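Posting this for the archive.
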Amino acid sequence: MGSTGTVLRELRGAQKTAKGVSLYSRYVNRPAGRVLAAGAFRVGLSPNQVTSVSAVFTFAGIASVALVRPSWGLAAVVYAALVVGFAFDSADGQLARLTGRGGPDGEWLDHVVDCAKMILVHTAVLISFHRFFELPGEGWLLLPLGFLFVAVLTFCAGLLREQLGKAAARPAPPGSATAPVSRVRAVALLPADYGVFCLVFLLLGDEAAFRVGYAVLALVHALFLVAFLVKWFRELKALRAAG
């Protein structure tokens, strides 16, 4: 491939479907990842190396939450690190599809990093609560643990839904129409998007605002988990009946 513009055009043609993707991922994270993927391609990075770069940014931001006293400066640094890490998380898959260098090892590494990220980010909040926050009561320490449970269960259940669905689904007949992408659904999924979740760390300069924002997101994610579990169970049950 030639210029960066050519690479970007090729990457646009190698995008995953926008079905079931929130507006943030579709219009912010994926385009940012596309630019990073083009840069990674130009300097000769592999998809797994891009995943490693994503992990460095993400884990550096998470470690800062646990180790540094909250401030507005920390808020900006943590948010930037998490958002850049998330964009690189999109770039690795785009680069893999562009170059054809993807494989089970890369998919495995990507999921391991994602799982570690979900566990560590809420663990870091718990540590920060314990070390730096003047909490109204010790019960607040249970909040990150609850959010952690919701995040990991959503991740694992969603991954199982995807894999079991692939195994049970029949191939679509040739020429069959695909369901159109729903903009309403893309808007509705915004609160559950990791990129939107990262916004709460911009409140780290104000302990009360961060606690409230984090608690609201925990509640929203718990409600989404219930809705997802019901939806995924019904879909798998329907696949069994169809088979």
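The chain has a mean pLDDT of 89. The CA atoms of residues 232 and 238 lie 10 Å apart.
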